[in-house]
Amino acid sequence: MIDMSDTPELVEVLLSQSEDLVDEMVSWRREFHQFPELGFEENITSAKVVSALEAIDSVEVIKGFGIPTSVIGVLGGELGGPALVIRVNMDAVPIQEKTGYPFSSCFPGMMHACGHDSHMAALLGAARILSMHKEKLKRPVVFLFQPAEEGKGGAKKIIEEGFLSKFKVGKMLGFHFWPKIPYGEFRTKKGLFTALSDRIHIAVRGVATHASSPHLGVDPLIVAANIMLAVQGILTRELDPTKTAVITFGQMEAGEIYNIVPESAHLWGTLRTFSEDVRDFIKDRLETMVPLIAQAHRAVASVEYVKNYPSLINDPLLTEEVVSLARSFFGEEQVSNMDGPILNGEDFAFYSLKVPSCFMLLGTGLDVGLHSAKYDVPEDLIPMGAAWLAYLGLKA
Which parts of the chain are coiled coil (predicted)? Predict the structure, then answer.
């Protein structure tokens, strides 16, 4: 049962306290942004998180649980009972930044292009605020700074190492700043929230030759191009049109010089769908079709298919509770349910299969999408995010 008796006053206090911390949160965010690190390599990042958490009154800090770069803070651990976990992600993505900010990435080819820097700053702010209200806590609150969300399944590793039992987890909450949702608006939904997300690697082997005599070789790029076109045919001509699935090849590698037909080519891509049956059908068709297309062109090809992230499922009762709290925090007009699930992958899904969980989006109002070299989160949203997470820590 949600206690709403002091809600308006509490929201006002939390927002005010968050605004008092804005300079510190922006500083954290910019430090994280300047030194982005890829999954399982978040050494500088985790050190900064540890330093910030250790300066907060009454927060117990645990370093390296399950993954050497993970950081966990616990407030109210003496309260016992099922804990509420608020999780944010730590890792960056392999993108060359093009924002032009004075605090742009110092590391070539790496960038916080998904907002994880802002997520961490907001949760550190929430931890600071909650420490001021620790006498109001109903249960332990665990702040989980999780490495390796971007395709490497850090959540799975954390779970396998016994996180849920070690910290007596009762509920889990995750949030993400999200572009193309109006600024400051809150979105979530019950049940199916994200697509399952798999990885595909196709390797093609041909016969190298000089560009002037292509007939003496077997061009793996031609084979790869035919495979990419044929794959789209699976989606548009073999799959039931009422089903949803998308395959995108985002990386291709072949050759060392412009005037030589290379010996091999590689394609890396991803499948997104909401149905395991659809996944199994497409996986089977890829494994059957790709070698045959290569054979028709006198080449050899193989498929490495990795089942990566499951679909994220929001617990209906917890989500209903969170939405009710969101209406009291943001206002009725700022809160709405999503029209449907999204095709993004999110490793928070692993938690959602084990304990009641709710994943939420907070709109940035920007048109630049996630994983763009120009992606950014408006820094004046970070205090709102921090106050909201602190509110959940007290009320959820």
Answer: none
